[in-house]
Amino acid sequence: MSPRWNPNPDVRTGRHVVCHLHVHLVLVTKYRRGAMTGEMLTRCEEIMREVCEDFEAELKQFNGEEDHVRLLVHYPPKVQLSKLVNCLKGVSSRYLRKEYDTHVRRYLWGGRFWSGSYFAGSCGGAPLSVVRQYIENQQRPV
């Protein structure tokens, strides 16, 4: 596609779709235990970046603390968000437990690294009030 059609690299284009999808994800360790070290957070980012690439998504931003991580992911419309999250949690859990086994076992038990729940918030684009007003002001065909 020519640059004049897509001047914004965050806007994805396909045969039948033009989209701009971003999600803010928060993943919390099991029992909200402070199991993550700085080194583990760095490794977690690497793992999650690879998982996103496998889904043709892009990890735009990553940060975290001892008991949670925050991600900003740009993803295509064909990606089912729950599958992406399950893969992010599953793959990172496997690698982090394997690579930092001794440390992780001090904080977490039962074979789980992440809590079963997560936060996902859509973001980007216009605020809801602006979208509502735009739709409301569209002319109806006579």
UniProtKB/TrEMBL annotation:
The record, for Pfam families, names: Y1_Tnp
**GO BP terms, alphabetized:** DNA transposition
* InterPro entries documented for this protein: Transposase_17, Transposase_17_sf
**What GO MF terms are annotated?**
DNA binding; transposase activity
Q: Which SMART domains match?
A: Y1_Tnp
Tell me which residues make up the Transposase IS200-like domain: 18-138
Q: Which PANTHER family match?
A: TRANSPOSASE FOR INSERTION SEQUENCE ELEMENT IS200
Can you say what this protein is called? IS200/IS605 family transposase
